[in-house]
Structure formats: structure tokens, C-alpha cells
Amino acid sequence: GDVAVLVPAAGAGLRLGPGGPKALRLLAGEPLLVHAIRRIAAAGSVRAIVVAAPAGEVEAVQELLAPVAPVTVVAGGAERQESVSLALAAVPAGVGIVLVHDAARALTPPQLIESVAAAVRAGHPAVIPVLPVVDTIKEVGPGAAGPADSGPPLEVVLGTVDRAVLRSVQTPQGFRYDVLAAAHAAAADPLTDDAGLVEKAGVPVTCVPGSELAMKITRPLDLILAEALLHVS
Ligand code: CTP
Ligand code: MG
């Protein structure tokens, strides 16, 4: 393998509701992180895996993952971007391709990891998996409170975006090592994905087809969906 996979797993999981760090929440009796790492390790290109764990859980995560796959565990940071930077610093020398993959996308098929890695290997410096947007998307702004309204003012529509040119973005996002390292070194404000940093550096970002199984477990409904999807992933 020629690929290192960075796994940001240090988030609190606030939108999932009470119950501890999201990566350690159970899906069919096993932590989401275990489901994620098992699928990453099944991808043939993967040489090294670096997990950014919640700061207080580094040893617990090492013990949890030792029977699953060889991994390096580092303490993550307050923002996802910081967690990725800390994991990037632990990548072994000589790795040419780095993938960044959310622990929260616990059911991502190994084939998607391979297709992103293959596109980087084929010469694309930055690669993201995407899906078409299913809902109509509107831009909104604060509205004025009507005389009969009570409570906070309702938002009003400013415009409708052309859905045909929009994509939902997943992980794993793949990069040439030097491209990701330079983008993180130059990063200012934290972004929610790594391709955003690379875009700001002027590097072209290439899209490959994503997978519905790479859905991000964010809200309680997603956990229920993920449990049902386990039968097909
Ligand atoms: N993440 C991280 N370090 C952070 C914040 C997020 O490593 N400081 C990771 C999460 O563990 C997750 C991925 O980034 O695997 C995507 O983030 P998200 O889905 O937002 O997870 P959380 O931040 O945990 O959830 P929430 O925003 O609801 O608190
Ligand atoms: Mg978050």
C-alpha cells in the first residue's frame, strides 16, 4: 500500500444528543470507530492509519483498535481541522497519498476508499467523493417580524440556487501528501473539509462518484438508518 488514512474521530457528537464522543457510540454493539477502521483496513492500498481521538480517550482507543487493525492514535484538537493537522504530523515518512476520512462515516465501503486513492494515484492532486443534491436549496436571510407573529422572526428566501450544479461532499478526501501538508500549513480559519483548504491554495479538486453508504452519522435518525444499512454493508 502507498496510502495513509487520517481518521478524525475527536468530535463530541453534540448533534447526536447525550451519550459521549460520537466515535465511541455503539452501532449494533460496536463503537462507530471500530466499524470505520475495519472498513479502512480492508482497503488494499492502505499502508498506515492515524486516528485523532478525543484527548481523554487516547489509551482507551488504542486498546479498542489493537485487535481490529494496526493504527497510530493521537489526541485530536478542538476543531476538526486541528484534529486532521495533528494526525497528519504522525504520518510515516515516504507516504505519497493521504486520505482524510471521518470516523462518523462508519459504513463507508472499502471500494470508495480505493476509488479515491486510485484517482490521486492517476495524477489528480485532490479528490473528493460527491453525490447529487436531492433537495431544492434556497438561500435565506433574517426576515422582519410581522405584527401578528410571536417568537423569533421567521427567515425569508433570498434566492434559489441551481441544484444541478451542486454536490454533497463526503469523505474519504484524497490528496497528494505535499498538497495536503501545504494547505494545512497555510490554513487560517477552520473549515469543515480538507478540500476547502486545498481549493483556497488554488489546487484543482476532482470529483469521483460517492456512495450512499458513506453517509455521515450526525443526528439520531442517522444512527437508526445506519443500523438498517449494516445488513447491506
Ligand atoms: N472531529 C474531530 N475533531 C473535532 C471535531 C470533529 O476529529 N474537534 C471529527 C468527528 O469525530 C467526526 C468528523 O470530524 O468523525 C466529522 O465531524 P462531525 O460529524 O461534525 O462530528 P462531531 O463534531 O463529533 O459532531 P457534532 O458537530 O454534532 O458535535
Ligand atoms: Mg462537528
Short description:
Helix content is 28%, strand content 24%.
Structural class by helix and strand composition: alpha/beta
Write down the overall mean pLDDT: 96
CATH C-level label: Alpha Beta
Distinct ligands: cytidine-5'-triphosphate, magnesium ion
- Shape descriptor reads globular
Give the tally of structural domains: 1
**Strand content of the residues, in percent?**
15-25%
Within CATH, the superfamily carries the name Spore Coat Polysaccharide Biosynthesis Protein SpsA, Chain A
What is the number of helices? 7
Pick out the low-confidence regions.
none
Radius of gyration: 19 Å
Roughly how much helix do the residues carry, as a percent range?
Answer: 25-40%
H/E element string?
Answer: EEEHEHEHEHEEEEEHHEH
- For the termini, the CA-CA separation is 23 Å
As for the CATH topology, it is Spore Coat Polysaccharide Biosynthesis Protein SpsA, Chain A
Secondary-structure arrangement, i.e. CATH architecture = Alpha-Beta Complex
Provide structural commentary.
The protein is α/β, with parallel strands linked by helices. The protein has a single domain, classed as Spore Coat Polysaccharide Biosynthesis Protein SpsA, Chain A, CATH 3.90.550.10. Helices cover 28% and strands 24% of the residues. It has 7 helices and 12 strands. It has helices at 32-41, 58-65, 80-88, 110-121, 177-186, 194-200, 220-229, and strands at residues 3-8, 26-27, 30-31, 46-53, 72-75, 97-100, 126-132, 138-142, 155-160, 167-169, 173-176, 206-209. Strands 1, 4, 5, 6, 7, 10, 11 and 12 form an 8-stranded mixed sheet that branches. β2 (26-27) and β3 form a beta hairpin. α5 (177-186) packs across α6. The longest helix has 12 residues, at 110-121. The two termini are 23 Å apart. Bound molecules: cytidine-5'-triphosphate and magnesium ion. Cytidine-5'-triphosphate binds next to α3.
